[in-house]
UniProtKB/TrEMBL annotation:
Record protein name field: Ankyrin repeats containing protein
Protein source organism: Candidatus Babela massiliensis
Coiled-coil annotated residue ranges, if any: none
Keyword Glycoprotein assigned: no
Keyword Repeat: yes
Domain of life of the source: Bacteria
Entry keywords, A to Z: ANK repeat, Repeat
ANK repeats: 70-102, 103-135
Length: 160
């Protein structure tokens, strides 16, 4: 289990830095590179622009879009950016908390893997499914137990 978690963390770190590169779309008629509202949400979260995220939520950007080769969602990117304010905006906007990336990890699992306990609690309180398993059969509780995160272990058990 420990080796698999290390691989996942390394993969996530590498792909996170490439989000902006993969979030552009070519307008064939105009010959321009243009960012769409849904892609802009990734960019706004990456740079931590709370006002832009609010605007894009109002513009009904796709808040569940999967970006890059790992399939991270805006919520996952906010978790990886350690931005609790944006996580709160997204959970208030009722994003899908239970989407999995290509490793089968949810935003909650990413929060636990990165020791983001406040963010993990926020996602749990927003009613994330605690029974979802990653590609190796681990739940959020299993990951917390493997990492020895007693605070989150107790919190998850309290919410089950």
């Amino acid at each position: 289990m420990r080796k698999r978690l290390n691989f996942i963390i390394l993969s996530l770190s590498i792909s996170f830095s490439n989000n902006c590169l993969l979030s552009m779309e070519v307008d064939k008629e105009q010959g321009q590179i243009e960012k769409t509202a849904s892609h802009n949400i990734i960019w706004a979260i990456t740079i931590g622009s709370i006002d832009k995220v609010k605007d894009l939520i109002r513009e009904r950007a796709n808040l569940n879009i999967k970006e890059n080769i790992l399939g991270n969602t805006p919520l996952m990117i906010a978790v990886l950016s350690n931005n609790l304010n944006i996580v709160n905006l997204l959970t208030d906007a009722k994003v899908n908390l239970d989407i999995k990336n290509s490793h089968g990890l949810t935003a909650l699992m990413l929060a636990i893997l990165n020791s983001r306990n406040k963010i993990a609690k926020t996602i749990i309180n927003a009613r994330a499914n605690l029974d979802i398993q990653d590609n190796f059969g681990n739940t959020a509780l299993d990951i917390a137990q493997t990492l020895g995160n007693k605070e989150i272990i107790e919190y998850i058990k309290l919410k089950m």
